[in-house]
């Protein structure tokens, strides 16, 4: 059976017109009821990339054929030349509009026309239409919290807390719902003074840890020199996906999502003796 193949790559929702010979246009979405009934079969898979996860799907659907002389495998046939076997001119192709979803790649195998049969009573042979789709899912950037907020004192620990949790990103694949679940698995803080802090947990505030302020934690860092610094948080994620209500399927590998650099002003602290509280008497000697 001859087929025409059309590959569409879209950045925005666009309507493309492909020159194809007229045939009934199948819908892209395969209802779950038809999957269960065996009318259409769907195969899916997923892969972690640098910035997210791609899920691919292939759908094979049996649709009624048109009357034709058929081929040895029971499927309809078509001539790809300018004339058919009888020497009659081949029909001119007509415009076939195909509308695709934003951000998807669609590869559609559409059966060509059949040669008119001399026996109109001959039943039409069924044909198989193959649809392919790919959808991308990107996790949100993590938040990079710190205590105290935005400043530090040389020689005293600064406590960092990652703001990242399990997130589910939803979309569609082959017209059916698809979800990717991202789960944090590791945390790494890259400091501009060259230090790196890496843990298997996001950290917690001093209050949550029942610790005094400016005490060391698993995620803290101590600056030794005053100045302006930055810190960037990287979170390693594992991923799983589900399609059309299926169970969660684990995706091999991990990916990393990175926060925006956070600015930190580091100063020095001097200890002096005063005769009273400088907050109540700021003009007192030593204040």
Automatic annotation (TrEMBL):
The organism's taxonomic lineage, starting at the top: Bacteria, Bacillati, Actinomycetota, Actinomycetes, Micrococcales
Q: Which Gene3D superfamilies match?
A: Immunoglobulins
Signal peptide extent: 1-29
Indicate the segments forming the PKD domain, all copies: 183-236
The protein's name is: PKD domain-containing protein
**InterPro entries, alphabetically?**
Ig-like_fold (IPR013783), PKD_dom (IPR000601), PKD_dom_sf (IPR035986)
The answer on whether this UniProt entry bears the keyword Signal reads yes
Q: Which UniProt keywords apply?
A: Signal
Region Disordered: start-end pairs: 47-95
Organism of derivation: Agromyces terreus
Any one biological process term the GO annotation gives: carbohydrate metabolic process
Q: Which domain of life is it from?
A: Bacteria
